[in-house]
Specification:
alpha/beta, eight-stranded parallel beta barrel, two-stranded antiparallel sheet, 11 helices
Length: 487
């Protein structure tokens, strides 16, 4: 009798199933550890990676830069080479600097009513976002713009729409501001002083812009000099308490990821933006001490926002001003010198001889940076300084450059002998009787810096002979001219 068939079914073991390994959780960013983060705007002139070295040598653990010229429209996108970007990112990790803030081009006006200007602004902001991602930046700061005749509500709507258009195709890779430790790029709208038709001087206007782009990782950057000039009391203890309460109620302190620490040359509610050295303006040292040590404005894990940073944008009028301002902020923040990053002794981003021209290249900050705007420093406070320092405006930079390059003029001879000298022939043709070819080589204009040539020496006798020592500009020796003999 045949045995019945036995059907053996394979036993399924879930342990044998292939499961791909989950992606490891990214390590928290080192600068989101709840410690104090203080930086300054440094220059990218020459080599963009040098800005990192400058920040480290100035005693900073954060920094702000421009990714391209801040006062020129970019050409061809002004892309950064991948090799340079990779080298920049690697060096930043080695120096443990963060956050990295990029300040957008000053020419961008997201609220402009002019179609050409608006299109340029949108494209320029898009390019800024692309460069920021290539460099591994954490924040991109941009001014909201000016309506230039439009009502405030329309200007705010235009700015929000421009932000959406500029962000098309950009992968920010960022979540909420409470998740900054996961990385990604976030856009920060900076408050303004309220000068002219600029929007963003009131917290309500900033909130309206944020509400217009709810799908983008956008927060706010508060500039102390701008808030002071816009009429927010941050100098007194009670005023600072009220300002922080309003900021939290209207915008939310969790969306204030950056604070620009700048003193102001202008009085309270002047609506004029002029940055000053820390403690030497109308805000004062005690006010900055309260701001930098306030628990709700800090980066502490308990009450503050981990990763929040304080960035300086002060003018640099002389070599060492940048290092001294950074040191002052660390002290006002209550960080002992031994615990703060060590600065390189004597280092400055500008040299004494070139401090004026380089600082004014960005309207009042180091080398090329410093979002301090305008010219005529001190004009708004009612008095003009005894000597206008270079580095506080574009006009002063040009004047400083001219004074440095033009040599001193030779004293003018006012004696009666001056009139006896023959006039200089500046025409393109040689005077009659001159050696052949001499006149054509004489330039029509002689630079003022060129040394004066001695007049041709003519022999005292009336024989018509010309001294052979007279050399025309062609470099050839003049031929002696002898008079014809009679008969």
């Amino acid at each position: 009798m045949d045995e019945p068939l036995q059907i053996i079914a394979p036993v399924y073991d879930s342990a044998d199933e292939y499961r791909p390994e989950p992606e490891p959780e990214p390590a928290p960013l080192s600068w989101c550890d709840g410690g104090v983060r203080i930086g300054i705007h440094t220059s990218i002139a020459g080599d963009i990676a040098e800005s990192l070295e400058s920040a480290q040598k100035l005693g900073c653990n954060a920094l702000q830069i421009f990714s391209a010229s801040p006062r020129m429209w970019p050409r061809g996108g002004s892309r950064i080479g991948e090799a340079d970007a990779a080298r920049f990112r690697a060096r930043r990790v080695e120096l443990a600097l963060g956050p990295l803030v990029i300040h957008a081009n000053y020419l961008i006006n997201l609220a402009s009513p002019d179609r050409v200007m608006r299109t340029r602004s949108i494209q320029a902001l898009h390019d800024e976002l692309v460069r920021a991602i290539m460099l591994g930046a954490d924040f991109l700061v941009v001014h909201p713009g000016a309506g230039l005749g439009k009502d405030t509500a329309t200007a705010i709507s235009e700015a929000a729409q421009a932000l959406r258009q500029a962000a098309r195709g950009i992968r920010f890779g960022a979540g909420s501001f409470r998740e900054m430790h996961r990385g990604g790029l976030r856009v920060l709208i900076e408050n303004t002083s309220g000068m002219g038709t600029a929007i963003g001087s009131r917290f309500e206007e900033l909130r309206a812009i944020l509400d217009g782009v709810p799908d983008l990782p956008i927060g706010v950057c508060i500039d102390t000099a701008h808030a002071h000039a816009a009429g927010y009391d941050i100098c007194s203890e009670a005023g600072l308490r009220q300002t922080i309460a309003a900021l939290d109620r209207i915008i939310g302190l969790e969306r204030v990821a950056l604070i620009h620490v700048n003193d102001s040359k202008t009085p309270f509610a002047s609506k004029v933006d002029r940055h000053a050295h820390i403690g030497r303006g109308t805000i004062g040292l005690e006010a900055f001490r309260r701001i930098l040590t306030h628990p709700r404005l800090s980066a502490s894990l308990a009450e503050g926002l981990p990763g929040r940073a304080f960035i300086l944008e002060v003018p640099i009028d002389a070599a060492g001003d940048d290092r001294r301002n950074v040191r002052a902020v660390w002290e006002l923040a209550g960080v002992p010198r031994k615990l703060a990053p060590a600065a390189k002794k004597g280092f400055s981003t500008v040299r004494e001889a070139r401090s004026g021209a380089r600082a004014a290249a960005h309207g009042g900050n180091a080398a090329e940076p410093a979002p301090a705007t305008g010219a005529q420093p001190g004009a708004a406070v009612g008095q003009r300084p005894a000597a206008v320092k270079a580095g506080t405006g574009l006009a002063s930079a040009k004047e400083a450059g001219v004074r440095a390059e033009v040599p001193a003029k030779a004293p003018v001879n006012t004696s009666s002998q001056a009139s006896a000298k023959p006039p200089v022939n500046t025409s393109s043709q040689a005077p009659s009787g001159a050696p052949s070819g001499a006149g054509s080589s004489v330039p029509s204009k002689v630079p003022s810096s060129a040394p004066a040539r001695a007049p041709a020496k003519v022999s005292g006798k009336s024989s018509g002979k010309v001294s052979s020592r007279v050399r025309p500009r062609t470099g050839t020796t003049a031929r002696k001219v002898r008079p014809k003999r009679k008969g």
